[in-house]
Amino acid sequence: MAKPLKVLLIEGKRKIARRFASDLEKKGYSLQVENSGSKGLDTLKFFSPDVVVINAASLRTNGLRLANWFRNSLPATPICLIVAEDETVGEPENVNFFLRLPFTAQKLVNRFRTLENNSHKGTLERGDLVLNPDSGIVVYKDKEVRLTPRQCDLLGKMMERPGEILRREDLFKAVWDTDYVEDTRTLDVHISWLRQALEDDPHHPDLIKTIRGKGYLLKI
C-alpha cells in the first residue's frame, strides 16, 4: 500500500474562512498544520512535505509572499494556494495549483490524487481541468474520472489549445493518426463521451463547446 501523501497545511483560525485540516485528517493524509508561514518554514527542519497548501483566505493575506518563501526552500515541491472569492492575485507565480473559494474539500483531495498518481510529472492543467496522460485520470471541479486512451488523447489535444476553435478534421487527423477525414462521426461520439464524463449537463455543455460548421472549443 502506498504511503499517505505528506501535507504541510498553512492555515489560520479565522472563522469566516473555509478550513480544511479536519477534512484532510479524515481522508488519512499525513498532515502537519501550522498557523503562520514562519512556523511552516520552521517545520521544514523535521517535516519533508510532498505538497504545501497555503490557505491564504484564513491568514489575512493573499499568500503570494508565502508561496515565494516556500518555493525558495522547496524548489521541487508542489505548492497549492487557496484564496478568498474576492481576492485579486492575477496569475500567481511559484504555485502549482491555485484554488479560489468556495469549493469542497473533495476538490482539494482530487488535486492531491493527481500528484499521487504521477508525482505531478507530465500533468496537464488548465483552470479547473487537470489531466494525467499516463494514468488517464482527469479531474474537473469535484469530479474524478478515468478516461480511455483515445479519450485521453482527444482531451489532451484540446487542452493544448484552450479557447481556440479546433476543426473537426484536424482533431480527427491528430488523434486517430490518419489522413482519411471523410467520416468523422467517431470523433463526435468520443466528444459525447467526454461530455458525459465531465459536464454537469452533457446536453448543454459548458466545457466542450460545439462551434457549428467549424469544430469544437475547450472553454476553460
Give me the secondary-structure category: alpha/beta
Number of helical elements? 7
Per CATH, what is the topology of the largest domain? Rossmann fold
* Shape category: elongated
Binned strand content: 15-25%
Mean pLDDT score = 87
CATH architecture of the largest domain: 3-Layer(aba) Sandwich
Q: How far is it from the N-terminal to the C-terminal residue, by CA? A: 35 Å
Number of domains: 2
Placed side by side, the strands forming the largest sheet appear as 2-1-3-4-5
| Low-pLDDT windows of residues | none
Rg on CA atoms, Å: 19 Å
The CATH top-level class label of the largest domain:
Alpha Beta
Query: Helicity, in percent?
Result: 25-40%
- CATH homology-level superfamily of the largest domain: Response regulator
The string of secondary-structure elements, in order, is: EHEHEHEEHEEEEHEHHEE
Number of strands: 12
User: Can you summarize the main beta sheet?
Assistant: 5 strands, parallel
Q: In words, what does this structure look like?
A:
- This protein has helices at residues 21-26, 37-43, 64-73, 105-118, 149-160, 168-176, 185-198, and strands at 6-11, 30-34, 51-55, 79-83, 97-100, 124-126, 129-132, 137-140, 143-146, 165-167, 208-211, 215-218.
- It has 220 residues and is of the alpha/beta class.
- The chain is built from seven helices and twelve strands.
- Helix 5 packs across helix 6 (168-176).
- 33% of the residues lie in helices and 23% in strands.
- It is elongated, with a radius of gyration of 19 Å.
- The strands form three sheets. The chain has a five-stranded parallel beta sheet, with helices on both faces. Strands 6-7-8-9 form a four-stranded antiparallel beta sheet, with helices on both faces. The chain has a three-stranded antiparallel beta sheet with strand order 10-12-11.
- The model has no long low-confidence stretch (mean pLDDT 87).
- It has two domains: 6-117, Rossmann fold (3-Layer(aba) Sandwich); 146-218, Arc Repressor Mutant, subunit A, CATH 1.10.10.10.
